[in-house]
Amino acid sequence: xxxxxxxxxxxxxxxxxxxxxxxxxxxxxxxxxxxxxxxxxxxxxxxxxxxxxxxxxxxxxxxxxxxxxxxxxxxxxxxxxxxxxxxxxxxxxxxxxxxxxxxxxxxxxxx
Length: 111
Ligand code: DGP
What we know:
Helix content is 22%, strand content 23%. With 111 residues, it is an alpha+beta fold. It has a five-stranded antiparallel beta sheet, covered by helices on one side. It is globular. The protein starts with a helix and ends in a 10-residue tail after the last strand. The model has no long low-confidence stretch (mean pLDDT 96). Bound molecules: 2'-deoxyguanosine-5'-monophosphate. 2'-deoxyguanosine-5'-monophosphate binds next to α1 and β2.
């Protein structure tokens, strides 16, 4: 499949992994927007959060995101973002959660 995150999960493209288990892989974003910018992705290909119906996987993605935040010592606060489909500017069509922190993130505004 021609999906960059599938290749990354398979190890065909290198990445800086910070966590992995049987369902999920977490790695540093190649273009970080904050001192911590980690992407949490399912091993299985799902295009976006729109397609996520598996509650076990949903729970795992969320708990791994929180675990990454703790491991990165983001006790001052952090943000979880899931850009979903065109209007949100999703660029990579493999579900991913952005874990952002390590600086003041400012107010979240639409647009
Ligand atoms: P989004 O706009 O939500 O689809 O964000 C996609 C993110 O994926 C973007 O912040 C950059 C990141 N990204 C794209 N290609 C690669 C890659 O090959 N490796 C890594 N580590 N991150 C990537």
